[in-house]
Design goal:
Layout lengths: L15 H7 L2 H28 L2 H20 L8 E4 L19 E4 L7 E5 L4 E4 L5 H8 L4 E3 L10 H6 L7 H4 L6 E7 L5 E4 L6 H6 L9 E11 L3 E10 L2 H10 L17 E8 L2 E10 L1 H4 L17 H6 L1 H4 L2 E6 H5 L9 H5 L6 H7 L7 H6 L2 H11 L1 E8 L3 H11 L5 E9 L13 H4 L8 E11 L2 H4 L6 H14 L14 H7 L3 H9 L9 H5 L6 H8 L16
Parallel strand pairs: 1-2
Antiparallel strand pairs: 3-4, 4-8, 5-8, 6-7, 6-8, 9-11, 9-12, 10-11, 10-14, 13-15, 14-15
Helix pairs in contact: 8-17
Amino acid sequence: MSDLEAPLRPKRKKIWVDYFVQFRWIIVIFVVLPISFTFYFLTYLGDVRSEWKSYKTRQKQHDENVKKVIKRLKQRNPSKDGLVCTARKPWIAVGMRNVDYKRARHFEVDLSAFRNILEIDKERMVARVEPLVNMGQISRATVPMNLSLAVVAELDDLTVGGLINGYGIEGSSHKFGLFSDTVVAYEIVLADGTLVRATKDNEHSDLFYAIPWSQGTLGLLVAAEIRLIHIKEYMKLTYKPVVGNLRDIAQAYSDSFAPRDGDQDNDEKVPDFVEGMVYSPTRAVMMTGRYASKEEAKKKGNKINCVGWWFKPWFYQHAETALKKGEFVEYIPTREYYHRHTRCLYWEGKLILPFADQFWFRFLLGWLMPPKVSLLKATQGDAIRNYYHEMHVIQDMLVPLYKVGDALEWVHREMEVYPIWLCPHKMFRLPIKTMIYPEPGFELHRRQGDTQTAQMYTDVGVYYAPGPVLRGEVFDGAEAVRKMENWLIENHGFQPQYAVSELSEKSFWRMFDASLYEQCRRKYGAVGTFMSVYYKSKKGRKTEKEVQEAEQAHLEPAYAEVDQPVE
């Protein structure tokens, strides 16, 4: 067997859950889609009402809501009440990780009112927003001004709070870094009810650098100031097919945005947006985009493709046509390009509704898409949820750019999941070591994509049913994820914690650096008030005993040498 050949697996005997999953589309069409559409419409009306209010009115409401949060925190009795978490229901989160920590005793703080855009400051080029503002809402407000967040995550439902406390990336991250790298300031309510504003150069700079990836375990985020950039009305998108082995595909992907002469910060050589989709071990399409004016887009001979219409082919399938017709260029309205994967949830929509990509469905019912991820989770039950954990993969592997070929071969060998999403991002060398950080000494190697201030990483997005599952063979999803996590640790990679994790506490702190995080936990009184990030990310139900142990946790984490100096 060659290195790229997947191991032979025995056939798996079907059980009742297989048939329930196979016909789940009935519930999705008649229950989930109508409720999702209603929810989206009501949310849109709420956003419109918010936009009618002046910034002054929104700020006044914000101040009142912050006072309520502070009052609520001060009502907590540490000796009787559980650890603090938000009042949001477990199924509402977009991520696939089970929010099982909310099944145990906890002290709820309601943040549901924090969904307003507080200010668009065109002079400072900053948007000040509340944590439940989502990407669809912010792009709807800024794009007509020819402004945008520097990093706009693709799915409409993703919120500012989730992208900051967790993980956020987009095709512009090879220029601006992850979503959290574009934040200018955080407004945080600490465990004792104190409201602080953290920036990279004020007295709370340590908290500023510790917030990303902390999963809300250092304080409650109530507002953030995020960098804006100037944009144009259209995205000029070039689709380039690639045929070859996985190493060839990885190199073509690197060449699409990373000049081999190392001139990575030259806007003339580096596109505004980059994305790759690997459809098989030998076929892929690389997409590069540059902002374009409406005058350019409407010139004679240029093709405009409004991908946002409900009846249009799903974006990943449209991109795949480049493998048949060769390289081509088209112009997409900028906001429609930002949210190109929303309607089909990348390619997960094909599993949820196998026929939803057909023209008849797109034309008749495509306007109902997408189903809300939260409603899909709410209607699946424990049996189906556990089935998906075993028979389905939704993971992101953040790896150095020069290891993308290795990662693609590993995914093919162990999971056989296609398509695979490729999206680059800068991993900045910061003045203080955070939970995620570039490889020590990366700047000395001068590898493709790297600069003196940042190492180029790539999100290898693995979302779909593995090949063995599609063929009816035995597949151990939990074991596959454990192998993936070990591979990431060995290759200085990282796993976003929105996904299901099999990491033990020891392995978790081998993957991530605990030093700054634990220092801030102690300094800002989070210990005993907010659960630790590992505890919050841990798979499985949390028992009352675990909650009590977390509340009484020792200041020193079992597996982190927090007293070591920060590099």
